[in-house]
Each structure stands twice: as C-alpha cells, then as structure tokens.
Write a structure and sequence with these properties.
The complex is a heterodimer. Chain A is of the alpha/beta class. Chain A contains 12 helices and 23 strands. Classes of the chains: A alpha/beta, B alpha/beta.
C-alpha cells in the first residue's frame, strides 16, 4: 500500500501570488472565498427549517422525527456558562442553517471545477493525487459533502466511507443503531442544536476484523457568509477493526462570527482501535478580535468493547473561541483512551478545551497530554475530567498538562477535575507552566537563527510529544500552522 | 605577511541595568591570534562577550566596535553570527524537545543562507557532523538529545565547543568555558580550540583562571579590571597573575592614578 505522505500545503505555491498580498494574507492563508453560487435557506430556525433540511436530504421519517425531538429539547436548554470564555450573544435566528453549492454534482467528475480548485488550494487531493497519497477524502463544503474518493476501493474490503446524508439512505440500519448512541440528542446545548439541524458530515463503518487499508480524511470548509456549519461524524469500528481518521478545517476571513457546532461520535467494539486526528484552522478573527469562528464541538468516543482503544489527537490553532472536550468513555474492560492536544491562542483567541476520561470497565487506562500555548492576549484553558467509577478496578490515568506563555498579556489556566470512586485507582497529574525565555531566544539568535524561527523552533519542541502522535503529513502541516499562527507573537 | 585587524574595540562603554560595567575598553585582535581576557570577578569579562554577541539589555553608551571593517554594534545577533562571530556561553540554556542535530542544522543553514551560500542537505550536514564528532572525541548520543536538556555542566560546555567546531566561526569568544570543568573536559575544550586555530581565525578566551591557558597558549593576555584593559602582555602574564593574583594590578593602577 502506498503510504507516500500527502503534502497538505495551505497555499499552492505553483500559483504566482502578488508579494504584498501574500505578506498580508500570510497570517491566515486559507482565508479566500470561493465564488460559486450557493443555495441557502434563509436565516432563522424553527420546526419548519428542521423539516426543510430533512426534506432536502430526502430523509426517512424516523430521521425527521429524531431531528424534531432534538430541536424541541434544544428549546428547553440554555447555552453553557461554566467555561472560562467571553462569548458575545449568539442570535440563532440570524444564522442560515443550510447552504449548499448550486448545481449539486452527481459524481466526482461533475464537481464544480472552482470547488475542486478550492480544495487544490487547501491541498486536499480529490482526484488522482489522492491515489498517490493513499488517503481517502470526504470533503464537506459548507453544509454538504461534495465528493468522497476511493469509495469503491474501500467497499471491496467492506469499509463504508460516505457522507452522512448518503449513509442515511444506504445504511439506515447502521445509522439508526449508532447515531446518538454516544452523544445523546440532549447531551448539551450545542449537541442538541447539531442533532436538529446537522446538514452533513462523514460516516465510517469498519466491519469486524478489517483493518482499514488507508487513512480516511475529511476536510471541512465554511465558505458562505452568515451560515453555520453543523456537521455530524459517526465512526463505528466493529470487533477487531481499526481505522485512522484525519480531519482538517478552514474558513474564509469574515468580520462576523460564524458558528461551527459539530458532533463526532466514535464507537469501538471489542479489540477495535480508532485514531482520530484533527488539525483545526478555522479563521481565528483579526488581531483585535473581530470575526472568527465559534468552534463549539462535542466529540466523544465510546470504548464499548473489551480491549478497545480510542486515541484523540488535536492541534487547535484556529477559531475565535474553541469549546471542545474530545472524551473517552472506557466502558469495556481493559480499554484504553488517549488524548493528545496542542491548543494555541494568539491575539484575542480564547480556548477552553481538554478532555473527559470516564473509567467504567476494569483495568481501563487513560493518558492525557495537553500542551497549551498562549501569545498576544490569548486565553488558554485546559479543563479536564478524570472520573473513575466504583466498578473500575485497576483503573489508571496519567495526565500531563503543560502551558507555554509568549509575552505578558496572555493567560493560561488549568482546571483538572478528578473524581475517583474506586480506592484502587491510580490517577496522576503533572502540570507545568513555562515561558519562552529571553535567554533561549538569545541563544538561538547567537547561533544565527532569526527570532521568529527561534520561537517556532521552541514551540515545536514544546509540542513534539503531541506531534509524534499525528500521521506524518499532518505533523508537517501542524508545525507550519503553528508558525503562521504565531507570526508577530514576539518583538 | 601582513596581518589584518579583525576586531577593533575603541573606548567601549556599556551599561547593564543602568549600571556602567565597561568603562572605556579598547582592544585590537588580528586574524590568527588568540587573546586571553583575564580578570577578577565583576571586572566586566562576560559583559564584553555579551556586548560583542549582541545580547539585549547590554547598552553601549560610548565607543565603537568594528569587525572585518563593519560596525558590529548595529547588527542584530543573528547577523553577527552569520558574519562569523560565535559566543560559547558561560551558561548554555536548555531548549526542551528541540533536537540538537536539528538545532545545529537550522543554525548552520540560516548562517549559510545569510551569507549567500548553498544550504547543506541532511546527508552533507551529517557528514560534517561526523567529522567534527570524531575530532572532538564526542559520542553520537549527543546528537539525539534535545539542546542541552539534562546535560551536565561539562556536557554543556563540550556541546558549545562542538557547535563552534561545526559552525566554523571567524571570531570565537569563549566565555569562561573552562569554569566547572574537570581536567579531561578542559583538555577536550583546549583540543577543540587548538584544532581550529588558523591564520584566518581569531579567539577571545575569557577566563578567570590561568589553568586553561596551559593548554591553549595565547598570543596576548589582557587583564580586565573595573571595565578597562589595565595590562597586556604575552603568555607569561597569565603565569604572573596565577602566582601573584590580581591584587598587584589593582595596586599598580592606583599608583598610576596617583
């Protein structure tokens, strides 16, 4: 199997770019808008809108009812206030809940060339390039999935990798069985909203004993203005199956705040393994905090079977506000959950992120490595829960939580919650806070390395432990992203 | 053969945290020479090294420093490095997670790029690394560790010399590289310096003790006291200092002032 690394470059360097414009845009390279006609629902949310979304996707009645139940539940809820975040009021009636490119393609060959160009710019290999890279990509543009590569090759081994809309039609029994089984519709405010209005996302099913022959990947992009993006991802690995899934995100620069409220559910049965990696580069807003994506995401994995394993790795450099806690429910005996995270906040970005490890089964293990980087006026919070239930004999957790500060106006905060109901559990927590010191910078500069390169080198060193968990091509992108995101952080 | 002046320091005054440390220091170093700067604690030895390398917080209030005919003081530290100035630190810092090899390759290529030379690829770079390791009798293991992370005092100093060997500077300033070293490490440092001595390169060896100068025999020895060079001589001056301490210099200075 070809595992040639996929080069994910944010800017296609073969395209000559005006030097000045390039310099201006460097801070957020993915900030272009693609000029394609899109079809959107008018802004606003009521039962009619929920029904309209469902109808547009030709969904069966059970799905429509599922959405409506979620919507009705959402109406009774209020946004969470406990996070260490300053969030302006969100007018849910001003958002358009559905936007899709006009002229919907029937197959990959019919995809609007401009759209393909966009993915080219983002470095997403939708055509033949994908084959070289050995990565199957499902690309979600605004609300709909525009093309899934490699479906045939995957189908040959029984793997289902499709858009969620398609899966509702082609594999309704699987979707019905697992959707909402990890994150119930009423789990939290944003998950309930997502359940009501989610427009697309990816569905992955790896049957018993199958090792997915390639990395699977989704690229999300918000393009239209005044829209929200509510995608829903469901990954099921049956007994003994394994899969590595990558997710990347970008959005154009706009001076409004756009809402991204996704839900990701992972189910791992006996001996199954799911590795889920994210490089999140949503538009972070400008240096004064105008615009940017509100990234309010619920991600949860259920280690439902014995000896199952779920690994979350995330590199969060984008978004104005990030509210996100990829978690593992360690239900099966001897199951393992891991969370490796780099979260960066620069300028006025805020992040309240971390994980939850819920130990239920016996001899369950969890590992948390969180690296928070704050620069400018960025505020970075780690919030994590390690919970050991009464029956979780022999549970073990190790948490390492490091913060790096760059400059004097930023902040790093750590809120580790530990609830242990089994006296035999071993729970360890280590935390450090450090600064990039003038001594380190001078040392690098005295060796000929510029200040900017020195900062990214030191930051890269700080994140190394997490980057090692990423598939090679993502590690390269993550490193570049940090460099771009930290521009102007020193001096 | 006409020797050329590489470094010319004239009437240098510098302040640190508002306090004047260098008070009219003058010094001339020619290519091919090794100069030792000795002196009591607090004389301004390390300040001189830091001013030459361009550290923030060291404010030059008067005087000039020319290097290769250029005004060194107006260059940022990285440009000084690219121009061939190297400071072996008295207290090398740790950079966790940054691999030593990667650090050095980045440094070397940044310098080469600044000088308009072709960057070295991994193979070329590794070849060079192996050569230098062999010359210095250092273990490969050094390459796989993070920059100075968890290094002993002696290892840090050796690493500085290794960096110097690899970067091949024109003017190397060793800031008390001998302090805290046992005799084997001291010899290794001296071997490293001696192996690099050439007619195009100069060394400024800052030290508190004469010991190192048994192994690195300097062309000129200067005594720095209270921010000025108060005495210069040949290698025998170092021995005299070792025998009599710094007090006689201070006395003579007082006598001269009277």
């Amino acid at each position: 199997m070809a595992t040639q690394p996929l080069e994910i470059e944010i800017v296609d360097e073969s395209v000559p770019v005006d030097v000045v414009a390039d310099a201006l845009n460097r801070r957020y390279d993915a900030g272009f808008v693609t000029d394609i006609e899109s079809e959107s629902l008018p802004p606003g949310l009521d039962e009619g809108v929920v029904r309209a979304i469902s109808a547009r996707k030709d969904e069966p009645e059970w799905m429509t009812q599922w959405r409506l139940a979620a919507y009705r539940h959402w109406l009774t809820m209020t946004p969470p206030q406990w996070a260490k975040l300053k969030i302006g009021p969100i007018d849910f009636q001003a958002i358009s809940y559905f936007s899709q490119p006009k002229n919907r393609p029937k197959s990959l060959a019919e995809v609007d060339p401009k759209l393909l160009e966009t993915y080219d710019k983002l470095g997403v290999p939708l055509h033949e390039r994908a084959k070289l890279a050995g990565v199957a990509v499902d690309a979600v543009f605004d609300s709909v999935s525009v093309g899934t590569t490699f479906q045939k090759e995957l189908a040959a081994v029984g793997v289902v990798f499709s858009s969620m809309s398609e899966a509702v039609r082609t594999h309704p029994e699987l979707v019905r069985k697992y959707l909402g089984s990890v994150v119930p519709v009423g789990d939290n405010y944003f998950a309930a909203l997502n359940s009501a209005v989610f427009s697309d996302g990816s569905f992955v099913f790896i049957p018993k004993g199958v090792r997915c022959p390639m990395e699977l990947s989704t690229y999300f992009r918000i393009n239209a203005g005044h829209t929200g993006q509510f995608e829903r991802t469901l990954i099921v690995a049956e007994e003994g199956a394994s899969v590595s899934y990558l997710e990347g995100c970008t959005a154009p620069m706009r001076d409004e705040n756009q809402l991204h409220a996704a839900v990701v559910e992972l189910v791992a049965l006996d001996d199954a393994k799911i590795k889920y990696s994210t490089v999140q580069n949503w538009y972070p807003g400008d240096e004064n905090g105008v615009g940017g994506i509100y990234n309010f995401v619920t991600k949860r994995g259920d280690c439902r079977g014995a000896r199952s394993r779920i690994v979350w790795t995330q590199v969060e450099t984008g978004s104005a506000i990030t509210w996100k806690y990829p978690s593992c429910v360690l239900r099966g005996d001897d199951s393992t959950g891991e969370f490796h995270s780099v979260a960066l906040t620069h300028h006025c970005q805020q992040a309240d992120t971390g994980t939850k490890m819920i130990h239920i089964g016996k001899n369950t293990k969890s590992k948390i490595v969180s690296k928070g980087i704050s620069a400018g006026r960025g505020q970075n919070t780690y919030r994590g829960l390690v919970k050991v239930e009464k029956g979780a004999e022999g549970a073990r957790n190790h948490t390492q939580c490091d913060s790096l500060l760059i400059g004097k106006k930023c902040g790093a905060h750590t809120f580790p919650y530990i609830e242990v109901k089994n006296p035999g559990a071993i729970v360890e927590h280590e935390a450090t806070t450090s600064k990039i010191s003038d001594d380190q910078l001078f040392y690098c500069r005295a060796r000929g390395i510029s200040e900017e390169d020195a900062v990214s080198m030191i930051v890269d060193g700080f994140c190394k432990q997490v980057f090692r968990e990423l598939p090679m091509e993502f590690a390269v992108e993550a490193k570049k992203l940090l460099e771009v995101s930290l521009e102007g952080a020193v001096g | 053969m006409m020797e050329t002046t590489m470094l010319k320091i004239e009437n240098l005054h510098a302040r640190v945290a508002g306090k004047e440390i260098l008070k009219g220091l003058s010094l001339e170093v020619k290519a091919g020479e090794v100069h030792a700067i000795m002196g009591p604690n607090g004389a301004g030895k390390s300040t001189l090294g830091n001013v030459l390398a361009g550290r923030d917080g060291y404010e030059v209030t008067q005087g000039s420093v020319s290097y290769d005919g250029k005004n060194l003081l107006e260059l940022p530290p990285e440009a000084r490095a690219a121009a061939g100035v190297f400071l072996a630190f008295q207290y090398p810092v740790e950079i966790p997670g940054v691999n030593n090899t990667y650090f050095l390759r980045t440094a070397l290529n940044a310098q080469r790029k600044a000088r308009g030379e072709a960057e070295l690829d991994s193979m070329q770079f590794l070849k060079r690394v192996r050569e230098k390791l062999a010359v210095l009798h250092l273990k490969d293991e050094l390459l796989h560790r993070a920059v100075n992370e968890g290094f002993s005092g002696g290892e840090k100093k050796r690493n500085e010399i290794f960096q110097m060997a690899l970067l091949e500077p024109t003017l190397a300033i060793l800031d008390e590289t001998d302090s805290g070293l046992d005799i084997d490490a001291l010899k290794m440092v001296a071997d490293g310096v001696n192996a690099m001595r050439s007619s195009e390169r100069a060394f400024l060896v800052i030290t508190h003790y004469q010991r190192l100068l048994d192994y690195i025999v300097p062309d000129v020895v200067h005594v720095l006291a209270d921010g000025r060079i108060v005495e210069s001589g040949d290698a025998s001056l170092a021995q005299k200092l070792e025998d009599h301490g710094y007090a006689w210099i201070a006395e003579r200075k007082l006598a001269g002032a009277a």
